[in-house]
Amino acid sequence: MSVEHVKLEVKDLVIGYGDRVVLQNLNFHVSRGEIFCIMGGSGCGKSTLLKHIIGLYPPKSGDILFSGRSIVNATPEERRAIMRGFGVTYQGGALFGSMTVAENVALPLTEYTGKSKAEIAEIVREKLKLVDLDGFGSYMPSELSGGMCKRAGLARALALNPDLLFFDEPSAGLDPITSAGLDRLILSLRDQFNSTIIVVTHELDSVFSIADRVIMLDKGTKSIVADGDPRDLLKNSTSEWVRCFLDRDGLKRQ
Amino acid sequence: MNGNTDKKIHDFFDGVGTSVLDPVLFIGAVSRQLPSLFRRRGLRKRELFYYLDLCGAKSIPVVTLICFLMGAVLGIQAALQMRKVGTEIFVVDLVGFSVLKEFGPLMVAMISTGRAASAFAAEIGTMKVNEEISALETLGISPAAYLVLPKLLAMLVAMPLLTVIGDVTGIIGGMLVGLSVNIPLQAYWTRTVTVLDSITFLLGVGKTLVFAALITMAGCYCGFKASCDAQGVGRGATSAVVLSIFLVVVADAIITLLYSFIGY
User: Fold this and answer.
1) Which of A22, A203, A243, B197 could form a disulfide with A16 if both were Cys (CB 3.0 to 4.6 A apart)?
2) Rounded Cα distance, B188 and B91, in Å
3) Burial of A104 (0-12, 13-18, 19+ CB in 10 A)
4) CA dihedral B233, B235, B241, B247 (to 10 degrees)
């Protein structure tokens, strides 16, 4: 894999809180334009890994590189510059409750671009349309459903046209139809904009719908136990645990 | 010494170190963002006006009432003692100096602690639970600049103004009590403007700038340190109030001591 095709590279990463190690010996890379899923059982450290990758917490050791630039060894200013290059969608949307949906989406634009109010309003309208929330700009986050909050959060994450997107449990708490709609949206983002997308999930339906590649984390060994195409892993993984995990509703999907 | 005792000692000093270092790092992080106020969009007017309303305008009725009553209570207590020696006129001096130098700034600080420090901690704690703080960070926006500076600025403007209102209403409270001990309003006012000088008034108001900074920093710090659950937010708000009161009283003692060196 040539360096220019690697969007994210994780090297010998060890993460945890205080004295506790959550995950160790993590090595993987994500290629440009790939939809990459981080899977594992509840409490195995999926969201913790995501928070470390996006620079919210410092790792215990190891390195995380975005297009070759280390976020671990970056100065606070450099880290912020790297962070501005990606969009993150949180489990609950993480919309700012004191702002309308449109103001939430406009925030990164007003912070980092010199665009006029009219230009920003146009971009906000476009992003809200992209996530199927056209006409909801004046709503407060408290007036939206869970799925709408997530889509509004995605619109905000897309505001600066990042080429790397992170989703933390996008399907959590959503009904199957809304969840499938979100999966289609993720696929269309990759197809339309060639975005690199990293999704933390344990929803198998989503994984088999969208993932080009998955890594599976194991709570026991605190490390990656499988890395590859989910369909290949389901059929050919040497680990019985991995096959069992992926095969819960395997017949229905195959 | 066994390993268990070693660990306990290590944990104790580790805890002490963290509880001292963390607030210092927080103050440093906020201070580092102060120059951003002078950059484009650095001053967030909408947030500033929101907090001016929350901490300033909405506090006016309670500040007015409490300072009025406090002035009246001071007047009654002073009158009871002064009457014994026939020097009721000194009620004016006692009420005036006490209100301007101590009780006005302190009462406003206590009210602001209840209103602002707890509100700041609860707001930031809830934002933390909802991952809004994480969202700010991943948008490349400093939470210290975005969340703390508008609150700090609003408090630095609101508290001195509230203190002026508190001072005036406190003196009015004393003035009404003065009537009951046969000090006419005109005489009370004349004595007040004779004995109180503008420096006494300004030094009292100046104290509140320190109080405003302490209350804001304590409230925001407790919010950022709150654990990510409903109880954590509640504990954060409580800690903010307790910490703010403690810091305000300690700061008041130090400032009073410093003022005494210059004869005030």
Assistant:
1) A22
2) 9
3) buried
4) -110
As a whole number, mean pLDDT of residues A19-37 equals 91
Please enumerate, as own/partner, the contacts of A28-32 that have beta carbons within 8 Å and a separation of 24 or more.
A28/A215, A28/A224, A28/A227, A29/A1, A30/A6, A30/A196, A30/A198, A30/A213, A31/A1, A31/A5, A31/A6, A31/A7, A31/A196, A32/A4, A32/A5, A32/A6, A32/A7, A32/A163, A32/A194, A32/A196
Cβ within 8 Å, pair B141-A96: no
Contact A90 B134 (CB under 8 A): yes
- b/e sequence A141-154, b meaning 16+ C-beta within 10 Å: beebeebbbbbbbb
To the nearest whole Å, the CA of B247 is away from the closest chain A CA by 29
pLDDT in tens, A167-190: 998 888 778 888 888 899 899 988
* Average pLDDT in chain B: 90
Helix axes A146-158, A117-130, angle to 10 degrees: 130
* pLDDT, tens digit, 9 for 90 and up, residues B227-251: 888 889 999 999 999 999 999 999 9
pLDDT band at A249 (very low <50, low <70, confident <90, very high): low
Taking the domains of chain B in order of start, what are their residue ranges?
47-261
Domain boundaries, chain A: 100-161
Angle in degrees, CA A93, A222, A227, rounded to 5: 75
For residue A107, give how far its alpha carbon lies from the nearest alpha carbon of chain B (Å): 9
Q: Which residue of A has its CA nearest to B146?
A: A111
Examine the pLDDT at B8 and tell me if it is beyond 80: no
pLDDT given for residue A42 in this prediction? 83
pLDDT at A140 over 80: yes
Residues of B in contact with A54 (CB under 8 A): 138
Q: What confidence category does residue B3 fall into, taking pLDDT thresholds of 50, 70 and 90?
A: low
Which strand (E) or helix (H) includes residue B113? none
Q: Which of B141, B146, B126, B142 is nearest to B46 (CA)?
A: B146
**Nearest residue of B to residue A106, measured between CA atoms:** B139
Contacts of A97 in chain B (CB under 8 A): 127, 130, 132
For residue B165, what are its two tokens? 């209102």
- CB-nearest to B130 from A92, A108, A111 is A92
pLDDT at A254: 47
Find the closest chain B residue to A78 by CA distance.
Answer: B140
